[in-house]
Amino acid sequence: MKNILKKTAVLVSAVLCMTNISLTAGAYDETANLPDNEYELEVVDEPESGYVYDGIYYDIDGDFAYVYDADADITSAEIMDMVDGCAVTMITAYAFSACEKLEEITVPSCLSYIDAGAFDNTAWYKSQPDGPVYIGNVLYDYKGDIPENTSVEVREGTISISPYAFAGEMNTETYEVAETTGLVSVQLPEIIELIGYKAFESCTGLENITVPENQHIVIEYDAFKNTAWYNAQPDGPVYAGSVLYRYKGEMPENTDLVLREDTKVICASAFYPDQDENSDEEIVNTGLKSITLPEGLEYIGDGAFQSCQSLTEISIPDRVSVIGDGAFFNCTSLSSVKLPENLGEIGMAQFALCESLKTIELPENVGSIGDIAFLKSGLTDVEISKYVSYIGSGAFYCPSLKNITIPNPRCIIEDESSVSNYMDDEGTMYYYGTIKGYANSCADIYAQKFGYTFDGSLGVIGDISDNGKIDLYDAIRIAEYIMNMRTFDDNMLMIADYNLDYVVNLYDVIAIAAELLPK
Q: Is-contact 290 253, C-beta < 8 A?
């Protein structure tokens, strides 16, 4: 071992001498990745993985952080604004429900969503007067019974309205929401971003809803279910401002639908037929044959086109940056999809069970592909972009899949089902096809781990000189890059990251030097 280390040191020293690199020793700083504020975070394992500060538990999802739990004995809660470089934007359902002694709450301006029941059992909530209860920029709840003929003007600056905020009590056995008659009108502020699921469900007296025009507002599923306003709408597309809330009634067969030019948002489950929540029967929409989306469309919600089984093709405008989970789930006739250039993620189950979908072109900006994204779709050959850094569980479990190209050497592939085309009677997944990528990449390692066929013809990680092998010249070129003596484009940076840690530095030079030593 000492001889190997000595030889490695000699080889690295030779590379450094060739490039005139001078090094200064320094200790590793454990706080380097902590948020840039005065808080000290402790990484925790229970009740979930994440971070804890002053008895409040945080975790990270993509580029945002959220609160999911808190110690029962806390009396005050100051929600952090940042966790590990990510803004804290959400508090999950019932996060503080066990904190009966909680009296004081301070939230950051970046907090934009508070789920149902997050603070209901706290001393703070019990001390609030009846009426609209605000937490920061969120209308969290209407406390107490709503008096008859009540009109509510949501205060300016409100970003969102929480789920169930104005809804009656929910029966925990049937999940039905009790009807309330007091609320008759609601005026939303000029700028509001979101109305939570079932926020106004069964407000049977609610006749008038004033929604700002030409605004991007996400209205979650069943937000206006069983309100006087919704019940009075004619069958067909129902709009709230520039938001297509849902298609009401049964859609005629062979419907060719053209949306309004000012449509900015298509809400969750917009074209999924109304159903009895207690029914086990499969609900499908066989009426929608085609749809024309306006160029100004920006958002498509979760399950928006779920089970539209006669829809054969769709072209999504480039201004759309978000397509929700399950947006085209079970669209069995869908065979042609044009995705927007600005799309950053393929969500969970987005095209699952789309058995007629044989090919799809994924935009270059897509950075992740969620769990079961293309589950049991008809895909045969897939080429993802070099920016895809994550492929979720079951994402490409496609019975007809023969070839998949994964050009990002550092792409994380979740498990054996992520790329698969066969499942045995015991539920074990296999892939009888070819994975193409860079030799020594994560895709190569994944294929070796599960015994899948791998094609490394894209190149070799570390082979900057592009001669099909790793040699001393590659180490020299990487060292020159580190000293700003050479520039690399994005593709070369990926190849230069020999140890796949997302940073091109001296450790890559050392790793290559170690590889070049006689075994």
A: no
CB atoms within 10 A of CB 244: 25
Q: What is the pLDDT of residue 465?
A: 87
pLDDT band at 37 (very low <50, low <70, confident <90, very high): very low
- In this predicted model, what pLDDT tens digit does every residue of 44-69 receive, in sequence order? 444 445 899 999 999 998 889 999 99
Integer Cα distance of 74 and 71 in angstroms: 6
pLDDT, tens digit (0-9, with 9 covering 90-100), for 236-264: 999 999 999 999 999 999 999 999 999 99
CA angle 259, 260, 262 (to 5 degrees): 130
Q: Are strands 56-61 and 50-53 parallel, antiparallel or unpaired?
A: antiparallel
At residue 519 the predicted structure's pLDDT band, cuts being 50, 70 and 90, is low
Tell me: cis bond preceding 273? Omega within 30 of 0 counts.
Answer: no
Q: Which two tokens stand for residue 505?
A: 């530095």
Alpha-carbon dihedral sign for residues 393, 397, 402, 404: negative
Do the Cβ atoms of 237 and 259 come closer than 8 Å? yes
Closest CA to 268 of 347, 202, 215, 373: 347
Q: Give CA–CA dist 295/178, Å, rounded.
A: 40
Percentage above 90 pLDDT, the chain: 76
Q: How far is CA 303 from CA 221, 290, 449, 482, in A?
A: 9, 17, 35, 47
Quote the pTM value: 0.85
First to last CA, the chain: 12
Question: Among candidates 458, 461, 420, which has minimal Cα distance to 436?
Answer: 458
What is the CB neighbour count within 10 angstroms for residue 6? Answer: 10
% of the chain beyond a pLDDT of 70? 89
Convert 164-192 to b/e letters by CB count within 10 Å (16 or more is b).
Answer: bbbbbebeeeeebbeebbbbbbbebbeeb
Q: Closest Cα to residue 113, out of 88, 130, 89, 80?
A: 89
* Residue 199 and residue 166 in contact, taking contact as beta carbons nearer than 8 Å: yes
The mean of the pLDDT values for the chain is: 89
According to the 3-state scheme, what is the secondary structure of 38-73?
CCCCEEECCCCCEEEECCEEEEEECCEEEEEEECCC
The full DSSP string for 273-288 is: PP--TT--S---B--E
The two tokens of residue 118 are 């997050």
Tokens of 80: 């952090």
DSSP-based three-state secondary structure for 496: helix
Place of tokens 């994550």: 390
DSSP summary character for residue 145: P
- Angle at CA of residue 443, ends 439 and 448, nearest 5°: 80
| Token output for 411 | 């792409």
d(CA 420, CA 96) in angstroms, rounded, equals 41
Give the span between the Cα atoms of 406 and 455, in whole angstroms. 10
CA dihedral sign of residues 174, 178, 179, 183: negative
